[in-house]
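During the reporting period the student researcher (J.K.) took over the structure-prediction task from the postdoctoral fellow and processed the backlog of single-chain submissions. One of the processed entries is reproduced below for the supervisory committee.
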Amino acid sequence: MTVADDRSLARHARAWPFEEARRVVARYEQAPSAKGHVLFETGYGPSGLPHIGTFGEVARTTMVRQAFRRLSDIPARLIAFSDDMDGLRKVPDNVPNPEKLREYFGQPLTSIPDPFGSNESFGAANNTRLRAFLDGFGFEYEFLSATECYRSGRFDETLRKILVHYDEVINVVLPTLGSERQATYSPFLPVSPRNGKVLQVPIVARDVDAGTVSYRDPDTNALTEVPVIRGGCKLQWKCDWAMRWVALGVDYEMSGKDLIDSVKLSSQICRVLGMTPPEGFNYELFLDEKGQKISKSKGNGLAVEEWLRYAPAESLALYMFQSPRKAKRLFFDVIPRAVDDYLTFIEKYAAEGPERRIENPVWHLHDGHPPQASSPLGFGLLLNLASVAHAEDKSAMWGFISRYFPAATPATEPFLDRLVGHAVAYYKDQIKPAKHYRPATEMERKALDDLARVLAEAPSGADAETLQSLVYEVGKRHAFADLRAFFQALYEILLGQSQGPRFGGFVALYGVKETVALIRRALAGEDLAKD
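J.K. obtained the following structure tokens:
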């Protein structure tokens, strides 16, 4: 396919990253930037450990940037910006020795010792964790630290501009504040020369020519003058956001639905400073297992490391791609479906034409070049194999897989081997502790006995579809409300869980003789939770 063909497809693609990218193209066409490139930005507040929501913002922005590259020859950069000069206002629950951080309230995150003991500061530790994951996934980005930008002078010109337009900026913000906060608000937060804290104090004087502001020290009441440049002040975050857009020339930044009002306010400030606000859209929030918003400080969502223990990174990227404007639960139970969805899309991609491929999620996960290899077995099926086999390592799983696919080995099926490792980990941590086997009712016992007999008489070498048909016929012969109730009974009695795989495929993989023996053990009242 030629570049022209690729661009023609991109112009008409309906996938949301292309819809976003077309807005960026239109922005540049209307007012070309003197900087000669388009700048995408993502923001990160390192007050807590990075979580999947942080990764999601980078992943989604990357997808828009990739779509933009199919639509335009203008260079496109991506910045991952860390607001690490913010003062510590709350001690996270998920760090070691949290009590040691309390004495540093108000200090910039990059001035606080690292509770993990691995970096020069708390901010640097969380930045390191973020970058390690982004690098591991292969994102193309440039990392920027607020502390470095403030102290190096990179923001100086825009900070002086805010001082010049101080009253206009104030007039944008004050209507959004309560009366008490209005009396003390200033966009500038002085960094105390005495103790290094980022101070929330009223500004009592300004000197535009000198580029300084003055305040009363809250402890000594001494009148103190500090420069607004070179790290002498930190901006309130909504004003800071606008300042960053102007100073860096940001063209696109997305944010969560909870920041809609903040985007509007920061956009107003951006216009006061003479720049058109960036393009972007507000995505819905991720929720924990209780339906509450996930939080870095609470640590109530999934950590990046947790998802990657239980599933490949491709499945995480897919979860971020799907329905970005829809609130979704982000907990352990969403992982298996995400993996199987990824496998399904990869399989479909191989048979699709160019018009369909560019709409397929895996096109966006792999920048238009999805891998050809996939897995002959679904993740849900592997999880149930691990469950019934009480697998503690990959070798136990491969014993069954090699019998089902004689030519398959970890070397010839590397992606399948990765899935096997993830399945064992997920089984041990998430399934095994929650398994609960129940005894069969009298009616269910008759159905199980019938199923064992039918499977034992099945033709040698029967495939998954043949076995599935046999199982269906058994279910229809007994007094279940419907086939769904029959299969649920099989899962609860034989697997210790309420949901399970397509049963014929499971029998084919686990083995007909082994499945018959499993049923007989259940009918004999044996404890299936034991090997």
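The committee noted the following: Residues 49 and 126 are 6 Å apart (CA to CA).
J.K. will present the remaining backlog at the next meeting.
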